[in-house]
Amino acid sequence: MSGSFHVLLAEDEDLVAMVVAEILEAEGFRVTVTHNGLEAIEADAADPADILLTDMRMPVMGGEALIRMIRQRRPDLPIVVMTGYSEHLPAEEPGRLTVLRKPYAVSALAPTIKALLARRTVPAP
């Protein structure tokens, strides 16, 4: 299922971004790594993602603003929030938005993404 799905990752910690990207690429996902919300919005405009993975606290533009802006353009884009903080978290939306609190088991990442993508039949064009 994951072969052609495009994951957009917004994570400002280089090591975390590298590990997450490696894990997802090993699962067959195509991953675009960005380091803040503004980069993520620009990357999605250039190459639309099938799912967004985002941290909440990032420089330039954090996850809260990123989610709000991406929802204006793409209201049905599945989102996974990965955060170590508990304030200002978006409400979970079954089938649309899931929150993984750091530290989370990296083994949970691919199944979480696959579950959100399962409701989509084909990757974005």
TrEMBL record:
SMART domains: REC
Modified residues (4-aspartylphosphate): D55
Record CDD domains: REC (cd00156)
UniProt cross-references to InterPro entries, sorted A to Z: Bact_response_regulator (IPR050595), CheY-like_superfamily (IPR011006), Sig_transdc_resp-reg_receiver (IPR001789)
PROSITE patterns in alphabetical order: RESPONSE_REGULATORY (PS50110)
UniProt domain Response regulatory: residue ranges: 6-117
Keywords from the named record: Phosphoprotein
Protein's name according to its UniProt entry: Response regulator
